[in-house]
């Protein structure tokens, strides 16, 4: 994307908070009529409110993100300006009574696309459609960011090469994001910890996998399995 004049000066760029953070940019209106702007803006607002219900996620307020409305922006600059790790952008296209909403999640530091999806519906009930799309987008983003944040935690090295190999194999299974793969990933991370009990990255990954399993309803997982480590990981707090 080309870089336009930004609403915030570079000197005013904000530091990132100590937990995962996201900004939802105003969605683009790809319909023939500019009168649909109200519906497009309402969709972005609903998504912001839905994301605010995720307690471990820091969400930038509408007043800050909507200053970018109508601008062709570089999401990396938005990330620096607003002090966020992730940026969500999207578009809406209407054809008669049919609506298609497309959204994509981007790593604000690298510009890498992390997730994208489209949602179709009708305008029988505008407010119900907005709520449904917002809930689905928020749910998909929550599960995706859990995975991304878990991968960020895998930074503390181990002196055991064999433990590191198990850790890498666990990450490969985790990336598949299926019920059998998550179970395999837990086994790999547990093997890594058995070889190096101080391998904190592997411990965090186990806890995070357990939390995802609970959220997705993938098999019986107890509170003891989660062990309370995952929230510290997601919120960026150092583990004690």
Summarize the structure.
The chain is an alpha/beta fold. It contains 9 helices and 6 strands.
Describe it.
By secondary structure, the protein is α/β, with parallel strands linked by helices. The protein has two domains: 136 residues, ABC-type transport auxiliary lipoprotein component (Rossmann fold, 3-Layer(aba) Sandwich), CATH 3.40.50; 81 residues. It contains nine helices and six strands. Strands 1, 2, 3, 4, 5 and 6 form a six-stranded mixed beta sheet that branches. Helix 4 runs antiparallel to helix 7, helix 5 runs antiparallel to helix 6 and helix 6 runs antiparallel to helix 7. It is elongated. The N terminus and C terminus are likely disordered.
**Average pLDDT level:** 81
Shape: elongated
What profile does the largest beta sheet have?
6 strands, mixed
Cα-based radius of gyration, to the nearest Å? 20 Å
How many strand units? 6
Write the layout of secondary structure elements.
Blueprint: E1 21-24, E2 28-29, H1 37-51, E3 58-59, H2 62-65, H3 75-82, E4 86-95, E5 98-107, E6 113-122, H4 126-153, H5 161-176, H6 179-195, H7 200-216, H8 223-226, H9 229-234
Parallel strand pairs: 1-3, 1-4, 2-4
Antiparallel strand pairs: 4-5, 5-6
Helix pairs in contact: 1-4, 4-7, 5-6, 6-7
